[in-house]
Amino acid sequence: MDRECALLLPGVCAVLSGSGSSLPDDTSLEKLLDWFTGITEAGGSLLEACPCLLKLISTVVHNAASDPGVLSFALRLTGLLAATEESFETIQEHSVLNEVFNLQHWQEAGLWEDPCLRIGWIQGLRSMLQHPKALSFFVQSEFIDPLLQLQTDTSLFIAAAANQMLAHILLFFQPVPPAGCKGVDTKEKDDGMTPSSTDYTAVVKSISGYLKESLVPKESKNVRQSLQTLKLLALLLAQAGPPLRDKLLQTVGDSLEELVTAGSSELTLPLMDVILSACSSSGTDERITRLLSSMLNINKPADLIHAAAAFLRRGQHDTVHTARAVRILLLPLDIMTGQTLLGTISTADEHQFSVVEQLKSKSSCISIICVCLSNTPQITLTPPDVLPCLPVSIVTTVLSLLKICSGNSPSSSTGCSEVSRNVIGSGKVQKCALEALTTLTSSPGAKERISEVFTVLIQYLENPDSDPTVLHKSYQALLKWTSVCTDFSFITDQLRHDLVEVVKKRVCDMRWEVKDSTVEFLGHLAGVCDSIKAAAEECDSSEALLGGCSTTPLLREALQDSESYVRASAISALAKTLTHRWQQGATLTEEEPEIVSRLLEILSQDSEGFPRRAVVQYFISWYSSHSPPSSSSSLLMQSVRSVLSQGRADLDWEVKVHTLVLAELLLDEAFSGHPGYKKGSDSHHAPPHAYGVVSEQAYTLHTHTATHTEGAESDLAVVVEQGVVSVLLSGLVDCDRPVALKACRLLITLRETVCPLSLGALDASAAMATVSCELPGCGWGREIIKILKMKKSDQAKEEDIADQRGLNGAEEGADSVCVSVCEALRSLGLDERMEVLTQSSDHIHNSPLSLLQDILTASATHTKPGEEVIVDCY
Amino acid sequence: MKLYCLSGHPTLPCNVLKFKSTTIMLDCGLDTTSVLNFLPLPLVHSPRLSKLPGWVSKDGSANLEKELKECAGRVFVDSQPEFCLPERELLDLSTIDVILISNYHCMMALPYITEHTGFTGTVYATEPTLTIGRLFMEELVNFMERVPKAQSATCWKNKEMQRMLPGPLKDVVDVWAWKRSYSIQEVNSALSKVQLVGYSQKVELFGAVQVSPLSSGYSLGSSNWIIQSHHEKVSYVSGSSLLTTHPQPMDQSSLKNSDVLILTGLTQMPTANPDGMLGEFCSNLAMTIRAGGNVLVPCYSSGVIYDLLECLYQFIDSANLGTTPFYFISPVANSSLEFSQIFAEWLCHNKQSKVYLPEPPFPHAELIQTNKLKHYPSIHGDFSSEFRQPCVVFTGHPSLRFGDVVHFMELWGKSSINTIIFTEPDFSYLDALAPYQPLAMKCVYCPIDTRLNFHQVSKLLKEVQPLHVVCPEQYTQPPLTQSHRSDLMLELQPPPMPYRRCSVLNLPHRRRYERVYILPELANSLVPSEIKPGVSLATVSAVLHSKDNKHTLQSVPKPPPVAPSKKRKRVLEEPPAVLAPKTLLSGAVPLEAFLATLQKHGFTEVKVEETADGHILHLQAEDTLIQLEEDGTHIVCDNNEPLRTTLRDLVLRFLQKL
Q1: In angstroms, what separates the C-alpha of B591 from chain A's closest C-alpha?
Q2: Contacts with A459 from chain B: Cβ below 8 Å
Q3: Do B283 and A511 touch (CB under 8 A)?
Q4: Of these four, A103, B429, B472, B599, which has the most CB atoms within 10 Å of its CB?
């Protein structure tokens, strides 16, 4: 804790000891507590550093007029302070603990009704219970019963906190297990902190007794209690060591059995959680295995399916039960599609009958089928001896379900028609099935069905009633299946023709979402094709799929679209489509200059940010994948110059950041051979904006073999001439922090390369000094000049008077000015700037000092009403 | 109540309802699918069509070279197209009192019914139905009359001949009943019998029933009809739509509590969702234009075209089609576009509110103003000088057998960059294209049928809960081509009554009540007595007077005082004296009280025996039985009239008299 804060703290304590109603805002106490927690976790002793806190606690607790919020704060603070054994004793000496956590006191004062206080009580105790002495205190104070009561508190937060707390007590203090047992933090146990076994036994006894009692709901309104208890049990079983686990299972075994037999739908999933937790920790406990078997045999089809799905999700490796769960999940699909997945159905006919009945109701049919579908990929990955059919027949089933959904299935192949009509046209099932189909690419033998998959997916793309999400998912599935495909001989001319036609049609769709997905698909397809090409040179999937139909005209058309997202997607799709040509250094096609001019037009004129960002990205990928020298180089360099100058002046900060990335590529190229140049110095840049159009391709940079050890100044001159330095300088004074930060980093890299401050490089920098760049007399140029002028007057007032005069002139006449690049780089104070920029913009307002000051100021204003206080709260 | 079904076409119905004493024809649809068997009527001489070979049967026995032409393996009649009329033999059409028209598509057979059959009744329709229906008829007459066909083929209709014909011609029935188009005079005469009605307006028919049109949401002025008497209600549901298109939304609630609901005019394309089809239409159109091709849209001159134009109005800009011209060619194009703008009260709410703004309700006005949409009466004249390609042409007739569309088929059919987009659901597109084969032009079928689908109709029926539903038999089973789609049929409890052409259905509804008025003076003379709280009864003696299906009870006229006559009484000729009616009894005899009364009157030895229906009281001393049953009391005593009378009076004490 720094000195300033330590000085302010007593004053703050005094404020809080008052009524506490004068706090600047309701998060102050939380922030204060966070700060204290931080200090404690860093190993500092709060009690020593600020003895005033103890006084604060006792004053607050005794003050009948204390605000419940402040009281809750005091409770939690006490717990925090008492978290170590040493300070616990100190506090105990002041007999504060008994008063603070005295339930009876709070109840009598009528404050217990306030949920604020109850949660404070739980959290305070929770922080404190880190050592055996605290446990003894807890047990002696007989807090266990009230805590158990809070487990079913009306407030969900309190109930959850109580559950966590109960689990914490049992797990944290459980006796040190033999080495190698998972789930228990043994670090502190080694310090000889074993709790007295009587305390722990008492706690275990009461909690497990409670579990046993409350597990089975006595009346329907007690279901919530059972639910909470099951949650607690699942928490415990997942982490308990063998002695505790066995003890728990022994106690609650009967109750669990009773619950399983009762078969309450509401409790199915939490009950399954408990049983599965028990299974995974206890292995082959016969009783648990029996319970699991019963769960996978319950009578209600919907519950059963959820239980089976929960079982599979856990990834258990018990063959018998896995086989059972698989059958349960496949049965509805079997009924629906008439595909004999389960062979001749051997499960009791009664069960099948009840599933059919359930499936006849539309809503439950859709939900059941969706659960089954989402588990199919998992099912195909189970061992073959567990599967009742080949994994590939599951792919077939999903395909025939997709056909049923679109109403295209011929009558002979469907199963029960009363059931299958429920899913006809259901978008939800279609989406689920398409997702499943996408994931099923990885299942064994799936590739056998690829031709059928393509046919169905193309039908979906063709279907006029498919909604945009369904179309999007169809495209994704098509891409995924294309990416795993190595042999395209299955693609017939008809299939190819259909796909080309449907894509052509969909780029003209009425709905922009559909146009967008289609354009995206074309881009991704080019990407997939490239990666396949890399693997096997001879096959070209784009060629195979689209049959030589060039997608560029479609994408160029999309550049004119009225929807900005579509324009943006079209731009990045074009980049992906052309990447391969760029990499190969292919000659410039006729259409490329036209595309470039359209892109530059978008960059300068488009009113939306997305397409402009995409344009800069386009040039980034072009620049990073082109292989000079090629016929396209001059067009590229010419356009990069325009992009830099336009991107620099853009209003959108992301466009500016992308422009800086492009500038960085140019720097990399210019200086990659230079010994002092550190490439990728900006590697830890901020993650891309969620809405930004970012090409997935990493910027792979080609390194030059030519050495650049000499003539760095000519490189610098080139970079200046390209406009890179202007981009960096204008970025530096940008009001958007990410832009300024990136520019600053790049400028520092440049400075380290061309004019390092180390002495050895002085000679080189002398030559460098001759390279200069022009600053415009207005806008960012003026800002830079201002900074330079300020630095100059600070450092060397007498020097360079002539130059200074020049600078003054610039300010007056708004004419452009030439400055030496090195000079500028050194005089801009980049390092200080960097320091400021790396801190988040609200770092001042978030400091503890600021918090303490706020509290004090607010209280001062409160005592002197009439004065308004403006609190800066984000 | 009887229903005579004169048309088998589910969306072009023609039914006759006999209800109470009225005979009402419900719609008057003309089945035009018969024209598909004829060769197209070209506007300018078509060398291709004129060179088609005549048809001769394989063995050469039948030679109809002049009448039948062969094209791409199919045989067509080379004559003016003919239509399949509603059945005219099932009942005497002159007995029809009124014809109710539900929309302009369902009135095209009107001149055939109202003219030359002795029809003397009235036709009821809404104003837009009459106006647009007239446009449709005029267009049809114009299409036929501007390219008169010299010959009229009849030999092929000969039964012996027809049996030898190939393909669909062999199987068509009733060919002798097929008729050529009517003349403009017949149209005018038929339409002069139309009387205009507004939605929810009640029209009294002979005092027997009331008919009233309801908005059906399908097209401008389209209606469903309610036909009701005081105690019965029949709903007639024809082409209806729940989609938000241009017409006023459908009035569903007024259909509630029907005894019988006659359901026709569901969508012909149950698997084609109109929104999806509209999307298909737009994207195929854009795709063709971008590739430099022309788009031909065969369509009717009113209806869906308004929605298509509205949709394109929004789509043009987003698809960069701004400069592509759109042509609408029809003899009635101008009237159709203009009339649509003035029927404000018949439009959906959204469009109605535009009436108060300076902009017209439909955006096609703006398309016309900005020269994006141009309309011409035919391809001759101005159109030929302004025609610019690539373009989009909307023109009729959707059957591709007559109208300007024939010309464009000949013009564009050979090039694969052009596209024909079918949007009207009335004709199979493959049959429509048959005489143009081989065809290089791309064909897209996106039928837009906004009428109710099976899902919507079952929801509607669940809500309005009619007692009985009558519908075409096609709706009671899944479509032939998709027999597994059990969701594409009507499933109701009780099951709907299916009909087909020439069916006569006895509707299951029995009339049980009739409303009768009582004149005030008669009512004044009644003496009601309360038999239980809230229910009073009175006996009435009156004369029932019936006129114009209205029934009135009047007081019995007092017999004129008979002048004393010395003549011998002629007993037989005297009108029977009006006897005072016997009093009516009601109530039940309470056992305990009755026993007490018997006791009081000296019947002491009473043995009570309980039976299934009541009690038997045995008066032992008198050897008499009294049987007390729910609906009767019997006193059995041997020849003891005084005793019986006493006992009767005792029983009567407990009963109420009217």
Answers
A1: 53
A2: none
A3: no
A4: B472
Structural domains in chain B plus CATH codes: 2-267+451-506 (3.60.15.10), 274-445 (3.40.50.10890), 585-657 (3.30.310)
Interface residues on A facing B, Cβ-Cβ cutoff 8 A: 407, 409-411, 414, 417-418, 420-421, 424, 463-466, 504-506, 508-512, 557, 560-563
Residue A509: list chain B partners with CB under 8 A: 279, 282-283
Which residues face B247 on adjacent strands? B347
SS3 assignment, position A349: helix
Angle at B600 between CA B596 and CA B601, to 5 degrees: 120
The verdict on B319 touching A (C-beta cutoff 8 Å) is yes
Tell which residue, A265, A264, A198, A270, has the closest CA to residue A237. Answer: A270
The answer to whether the Cβ–Cβ distance between B482 and A505 falls below 8 Å is no
Contact A511 B279 (CB under 8 A): yes
**What is the DSSP-derived secondary structure letter of residue A271?**
H
Peptide bond into B478 cis (omega under 30): no
* Confidence band, pLDDT 50/70/90 cuts, at residue A102: confident
Distance CA(A419)–CA(A159), nearest Å, equals 42
Packing angle of the helix pair A609-625, A633-648 (nearest 10 deg) = 140
**Residue contact B482–A407, C-beta within 8 A:** yes
Tokens read off for B420: 């024909």
- Do A508 and B272 lie within an 8 Å CB cutoff? no
- Alpha-carbon distance of B113 to A385, in angstroms, equals 75
CB pairs under 8 A between A and B: 65
CB of B90 closer than 8 Å to CB of B6: yes
Confidence of residue A842 (pLDDT cuts 50, 70, 90): low
- pLDDT, one tens digit per residue, over A363-404 is 999 999 999 999 998 898 888 888 888 888 999 999 999 999
What strands, in cross-sheet order, belong to the sheet with B497-499? Answer: B203-205, B209-215, B223-228, B233-237, B260-263, B468-472, B497-499
Partner-chain contact B279 A414, CB within 8 Å: no
Buried b (16+ CB within 10 A) or exposed e, A656-666: bbbbbbbbbbb
The reported pLDDT for the residue numbered B194 is 97
Termini Cα distance of chain A:
24
- Beta partners for residue A220, in sequence order: none
Please choose, from the candidates B489, B496, B438, B505, the residue with its C-alpha nearest in 3D space to the C-alpha of residue B469. B496
For A289-315, what is each residue's pLDDT tens digit?
888 888 888 888 889 999 999 998 887
Question: d(Cα B593, Cα B601) in Å, to the nearest integer?
Answer: 12
Pairing of strands B614-619, B624-629: antiparallel
Q: What is the ipTM of this complex?
A: 0.77
**Which tens digits make up the pLDDT trace of B425-458?**
999 999 999 999 999 999 999 999 999 999 999 9
Asked if B452 and B431 touch (Cβ cutoff 8 Å), the reply is: no
Burial of A865 per CB tally in 10 Å (0-12, 13-18, 19+): exposed
Q: What are phi and psi of B504, to 5 degrees?
A: -125, 115
Backbone angles phi, psi at B444, to 5 degrees: -125, 130
**Closest residue of chain A to B317, computed from CA coordinates:** A562
Is A464 in Cβ contact with B280 (below 8 Å)?
Answer: yes
Give dist(CA A746, CA A740) in Å, integer.
Answer: 10
What residue in B sits closest to A406 (Cα-Cα)? B271
Q: Is B183 left (phi over 0), alpha (psi -120 to 50) or beta?
A: beta
pLDDT number for residue A179: 52
Tell me the C-alpha distance between A733 and A787, whole Å. 10
pLDDT of residue A543: 66
